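Technical appendix A lists one of the benchmark inputs used to test multi-chain prediction within the project. The record comprises two sequence entries:
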Amino acid sequence: MALNASRNDLASGAIFIAFGTYFALEALRYDFGTPFRMGPGFMPVVLGGILIALGIVVAAKGMGKPDEEAAPPWPFRGIVLVLGTILFFAATIRGLGFIPVVLIAGFATALSSSRNTWLSALIISAGLCALCLLIFVVGLGMIVPLVGPWLRF
Amino acid sequence: MDLFASLGLGFSVALDPVNILYCFIGVLLGTLVGVLPGIGPTATIAMLLPITFSLNPETALIMLAGIYYGAQYGGSTTAILINLPGESSAAVTAIDGYQMARQGRAGPALAAAALGSFFAGSVATFLLAAFAPPLARAALNFGAPEYFSLIVLGLLVSIALAHGSIIKALGMIVLGLLLGMVGQDIYTGTPRFTFGLRELFGGLNFVAVAVGVFGIAEILRNLENEHEREVGVKAVKNLWLTRDDLRRIIMPVLRGTGLGSILGVLPGGGHILSAFASYSAEKRLSKNPGEFGKGAIEGVAGPESANNAAAQTSFIPLMTLGIPAHPVMALMIGAFILQGITPGPNVINEQPALFWGIIASMWIGNLLLVVLNLPLVGLWVKMLSIPYRVLFPAIVLFACIGTFSINQNVYDIYAIAFFGIVGYLLIRFGCEPAPLLLGFVLGPLLEEHLRRAMIISRGDPMIFIERPISATLLIMALAAVLVAVLPSIRRRRAEVFVEDD
């Protein structure tokens, strides 16, 4: 079914509305105050309302005007691996320690490019690990366990 | 203190060997970033902020400033050699610069860009030194209503200069403002939008937001379509300009410097606008406009001077008012704050060594850039052959490690992932990320000054119109929006007329 509207406008409108709604609803639980003495809820409620309105306008303007260019392909592999790596990094940096985390994270992100093979990804991650160790731990004196408590016996 | 005594103080700071070294590292990194597409100065400065934390304030800011104007410079090299502007403001340079390179005149194009930039950078730095102190003195009289109006002006002008849909840009600003409100309320201490997480009480980490929106989102964007870059020009010979070339670039460089210096002060990407303005001015003034687009050296020298002049003068609003003109300046504010300095009109009096040191370092930096760029251009061409598949894992790792090293807070890293995906989606759907970051940085300031102004006026919003400076600023903001809206109305009308025919 062909959609007679700009997917881009509908989608960005929806994102705006979603964020606006969250901020406005959450802020309604805070003290609104008066214009004289504004409470913590005043600005977020007002701005959230404006954002919802802008989202509706953006979506409405996209009606009847389909996008001229075809959407680029979704980089699913990249999204999963890059975001996954960042989450993995956050979850394990304290437990596994610097060296294992950077090695694994570098390997996984390198693989998110279809141009990297297993071997090149391995080389890249080893090189990056050495580089990061040199810059952050040796150079900047970052305090982080090189091998974390999870791996100590 | 008169100007020359102050500059003397500045040079004594900037000529300190340690500061020269970091200035050099800054412009070197900046050139590198400018040359390599796929990573802009915004993401780089965001990633390097944690590194500068251990340096002293002068050194840190000198280095960060160097990255910024170095990137303006480096962007032109790739624009000329491979028709791929590393920086958005170099897009104009690519038009004629690449044509010159194809005709075997890459050398003169690079030299014209370098000399024009050096001249423009030096002049604009002088303007910065001359105009910043009086402006800062004027700004000391600003009260909460004036600051509120000024921030509104800054935000609205930034959308006027952004390309694409104005409503989307407005939406991005408002979203940024809202994200800036996460954390404890300044007056009551009420935690807002924190999901009960103590780590979010201090607000979202802006390095995480900047790295997510400008770094990770950009990587995802590049992974959509992977293709190798082609380096057409392998070696650059003959960097010298002929006497004829020199004669042709003098006026464009002067005009570009003037345009860039003025437009650079405007919030929201004056350097991009100034490059376009200079290009169209040169084309109109040229005796043979037909040459433009086919390798006219004026089309390289003018815009390059303009964007470098603008890069320097965009420091004026930051150093005098504490208001960033664009996202990179927003990060500079972050750098000031990390160092425990509140940017604004007081910096010049309380930290004269810092203020004048940064200004003086810009001359040194510009000189270093000429030395770095012209003789070493072969090295930069080689850099272009670093494949992206090696580069982006490095960016991701640097982003994570750097952000983590600021506060040792893992929630900052979760925030990178969140803003990476949100930023990617928004960019994909045609929203520009720059207004979001500006809104995010200015949000808390906007709220603080609005609330303070309303307390002063006892709840009467007329205070913003009754105070003359504030009223003028608001009228300018309104004018900026009108100017932004008008051309699109005109264009749409034009389209309607075409269809009628």
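Chain B has one domain: 3-500. Confidence is low (pLDDT under 50) at residues 492-501 of chain B. Comparable benchmark entries are summarised in Table A2.
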